[in-house]
Structures are given as C-alpha cells and as structure tokens.
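Lecture notes, part 5. Sequence design as translation. It can be helpful to think of inverse folding as translation between two languages: the language of shapes and the language of residues. The source text, in structure tokens, appears below.
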C-alpha cells in the first residue's frame, strides 16, 4: 500500500488517492465532432419521492446516433445501502463515474469508520461530474440523478446535476435525458404528497411509458424479449429493486388503458 506524509495525505477521497499514485480518474479524451454519434448514449431517467422514501427509474435503451446500440443497459444502479444513481449522457464515462463513486463511498467508510452523510454523497458526486468537464466540453456529457434515504431527516431526497458539476436538490421529482420533458409532465400531473410506494412505482412506470411513446431514444417495455425498465425504491430498509414480474403486470394495465382510449 502507498504511504504518504502528513502534508501529502489524500485523506478519504478515493479520486485524490488515484491522482497521488499517478492515475487520473478522468483522463482527457480526444474526440472529433463526427465521432460523437458513434458513442452509446443513455437516455431517460427519473426519480420521485414518496411517503418514507424515493423511487428511481430508467429505461434500458442506449442509442448511438440513429441506431439502438444496447437494449439492456443498467442506467439505475445502487450506490450503497441507502442511495442510488441514475445516469443520462455518454454511457462510457457515465458508467466509469458510477464505479468510481461506489468505490469512493466504500473507501470513505473504511477510512473514517462511518458512512458519509447523504448530503456528503451528493457533494462527492458533484465533484466527480465537475472533474468530467473537459470531456463534457467535447460533447461527452454525463448528467446523473442521485437519490437516497436520509436517516437524519427520515425521508427520501433527490438531486440532479448539470455538466459543470452544479447540484440542485429537488423536493418532489426530477427527470433527465432526452425524454425528460415528457416524463416530467407526467410526474408533474400525477405526483401528490404522501404517495405510497406502489403508487410512486406506478407513476414512474407511466412516465417512462409516455416518454418512450414520443422519444425515439427512450426504450419502452419490450414484452417480446421480456425487457422492462429498472425501477427501484430506497427507504429505511435500504435499496429494493422492483421485480420484472411486477412491472409486467403494471405495464399490462397501462397498455390496456391505452387500447381503450
């Protein structure tokens, strides 16, 4: 293990530790404008609060220009026991950022002997997004959503980010990606205070359905292949992913309503 002097100690920051040993967690990437369409991009993700927690959801499609590059991308992932991250933007840098973020939270807990606060986790992710700014200026933008359960406040909290690392806490709901305008409209109409977990899951599924219906980069439920969006809830009991079987039932109901109208 590397050793550091008192004035050179990276502390509990895992990215800073990598830099101290000569590894850059966010290296500069030379990209021409014509190459941007060739990189897979993740699209629509969202989060909303409910009574006692937060629900996160994201479709599974990744696009490269006008083509579907992946049908089963995991855009919503668990960060630790009480938080999760959803990504939109260039898929490669986004996935690397999430892996580094997960390691940072684990590293901090081992070094400090306690978990980072939810606010601290949001700040840490903001610093990582800010570190990706040189790549973002070339078009490799990463815009995540961070959400989790705050044991100090006994409620769910959520944040969205811009490409410069600015973080903004939203109290009710947030959506990002190419279908975010459509998904946000559904959330705005359907969100209520004191939503139950099941009602929040249903609302998230409907928001992704409407986004996929009008946005080509957002994937809807693929019944033929059995591919459904990733939907997860986070509350005092921790991270719980909604089973595909439950989502299949939810989308059967939605499709029945669409057929009737």
């Amino acid at each position: 293990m590397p050793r550091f002097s008192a004035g050179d100690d990276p502390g509990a920051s895992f990215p800073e530790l990598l830099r101290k040993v000569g590894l850059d967690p966010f290296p500069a990437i030379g990209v021409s404008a014509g190459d941007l369409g060739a990189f897979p991009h993740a699209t629509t993700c969202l989060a909303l609060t409910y009574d006692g927690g937060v629900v996160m959801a994201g479709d599974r499609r990744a696009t490269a220009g006008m083509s579907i590059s992946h049908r089963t991308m995991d855009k919503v992932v668990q960060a630790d026991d009480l938080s999760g991250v959803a990504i939109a933007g260039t898929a490669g840098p986004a996935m690397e950022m999430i892996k580094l973020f997960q390691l940072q939270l684990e590293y901090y807990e081992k070094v400090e002997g306690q978990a980072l606060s939810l606010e601290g986790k949001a700040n840490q992710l903001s610093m990582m997004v800010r570190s990706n700014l040189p790549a973002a200026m070339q078009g490799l933008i990463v815009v995540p959503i961070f959400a989790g359960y705050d044991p100090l406040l006994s409620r769910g909290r959520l944040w969205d980010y811009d490409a410069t690392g600015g973080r903004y806490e939203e109290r009710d709901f947030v959506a990002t990606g190419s279908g975010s305008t459509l998904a946000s409209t559904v959330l705005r109409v359907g969100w209520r205070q004191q939503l139950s977990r099941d009602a929040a899951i249903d609302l998230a599924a409907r928001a992704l359905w409407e986004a996929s219906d009008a946005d080509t980069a957002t994937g809807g439920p693929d019944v033929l292949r059995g591919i459904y969006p990733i939907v997860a809830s986070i509350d005092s009991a921790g991270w719980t992913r909604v089973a595909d079987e439950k989502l299949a039932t939810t989308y059967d109901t939605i499709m029945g309503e669409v057929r009737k109208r």
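The translated text above is only one of many valid answers, since several sequences can fold into similar shapes. The chain has seven helices and 14 strands.
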